Amino acid sequence: MARRREGPAGFDVSVPNVAHWTVRLNLLRGRFDYTNTGILDATHLRWFTEKTVRALCRSCGLEVLSVQHSAGNDMPEYRRAFPWRFLPGRLRRPLVRRLTRALPRLFGCQHVVCARLPAA
Questions:
Q1: Is the pLDDT confidence value at 1 over 70?
Q2: What is the DSSP string of the chain?
Q3: C or N terminus of the chain, fewer CB within 10 Å?
Q4: How far is 67 from 29, CA to CA, in rounded Å?
Q5: How does pLDDT run across 61-96, given as a tens digit for each residue?
Q6: What is the reported pTM?
Q7: Cα(17)–Cα(49) distance, rounded to whole angstroms?
């Protein structure tokens, strides 16, 4: 889990999205290579889909208030992979943000979950 912050509404937890298009594409190629940063960061103990992170929260007795998704504009894949490497950053970044909003489970780099203990 990348971050945990407690606020008046609950806890924010950010976890890597294993269903991101880059991971899916690499799996199709037969690769699941750990990296120094990003979704497949070697320090991550687990990876999640939106469904599994919701299940994790429920199993811990938490109520999920919302799930948002980070765009991951700074991922190296957006500077190296076709067709992204041919787009200048000023065009690529807003496009990735729009795609993340439209298809969050495919383009979201991380699931950002706001959860809390159920009200008594």
A1: no
A2: --EEEE-SS-EEEEEEBTTSHHHHHHHHTT----BSSSTTBTT-S--B-HHHHHHHHHHTTPEEEEEEEE--TT-THHHHSTTGGGS-HHHHHHHHHHHHHHSHHHH-SEEEEEEEPPP-
A3: C
A4: 30
A5: 999 999 999 999 888 888 888 889 999 999 999 999
A6: 0.85
A7: 6
Work out whether strand 11-16 and strand 3-6 pair parallel, antiparallel, or are unpaired: antiparallel
**pLDDT for 57:** 94
* Overall size of the chain counted in residues: 120
How far is residue 112 from each of residues 4, 66, 68, 69, 91, measured CA to CA in Å?
10, 8, 5, 6, 25
C-alpha dist (Å) from residue 35 to 42, 76, 95: 6, 11, 25
Distance CA(73)–CA(51), nearest Å, equals 23
- Lookup: tokens for 70: 């980070």
Contacts with 68 (C-beta within 8 Å, 6 or more apart), sequence order: 104, 111, 112, 114
